[in-house]
């Protein structure tokens, strides 16, 4: 007789589903192939609007429960109307959100109850690159990004640090920001 131990949700994470998904992917690797998508439309000036609605995953076309619309713009000092964060600021949100969700998942899988997780993210950028004023000496993107976490839970400091480190090792956003990712641009006119 086999007994299955049901694990209750922890840190808001459905641990049974998390572990079940991992086991299913182990059995059928194709389940792991996802394609996330966004559509973007220019509004005016540097202001644009992106919508996240559908994606492909688990070997099927899927749709989020609700569409998410985000605005992007530049501040007035960068010839924008400052109605939303800049595109590079969304990268700061992306790395923080990815690492934070990873921390919650890793901690839950290890049976660690979290009581607090917050972060501050700062990215240093030199506009000489973007404005083409450096002769190629300054990159267009961030020179560095620093993420500082405050994590509390029912584990010792070393365990909490290890949970953050495992989240970093498995973070898709961290990987995309720290390793070259091929980006193909296709143009359709008319």
TrEMBL record:
Presence of keyword Oxidoreductase: yes
Example GO molecular function: peroxidase activity
UniProt KW keywords: Oxidoreductase, Peroxidase
Organism superkingdom: Bacteria
Bilayer-crossing regions: none
EC main group: oxidoreductase
Isomerase among keywords: no
Family matches, as Pfam families: OsmC
E.C. number: 1.11.1.-
Protein's recorded name: OsmC family protein
Annotated source species: Nocardioides renjunii
């Amino acid at each position: 007789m086999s007994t299955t131990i049901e694990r209750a949700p922890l840190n808001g994470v459905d641990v049974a589903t998390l572990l079940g998904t991992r086991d299913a992917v182990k059995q059928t690797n194709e389940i792991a192939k996802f394609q996330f998508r966004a559509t973007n439309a220019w509004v005016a000036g540097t202001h644009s609007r992106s919508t996240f609605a559908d994606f492909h995953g688990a070997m099927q076309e899927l749709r989020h429960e609700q569409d998410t619309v985000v605005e992007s713009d530049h501040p007035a000092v960068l010839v924008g109307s400052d109605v939303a964060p800049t595109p590079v600021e969304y990268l700061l949100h992306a790395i923080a959100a990815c690492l934070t969700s990873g921390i919650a998942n890793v901690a839950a899988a290890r049976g660690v109850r979290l009581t607090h997780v917050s972060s501050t993210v700062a990215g240093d950028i030199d506009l000489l690159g973007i404005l083409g004023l450096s002769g190629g000496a300054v990159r267009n993107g961030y020179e560095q990004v620093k993420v500082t976490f405050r994590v509390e839970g029912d584990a010792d400091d070393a365990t909490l640090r290890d949970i953050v480190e495992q989240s970093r090792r498995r973070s898709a956003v961290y990987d995309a920001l720290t390793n070259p990712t091929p980006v193909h641009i296709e143009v359709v006119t008319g």
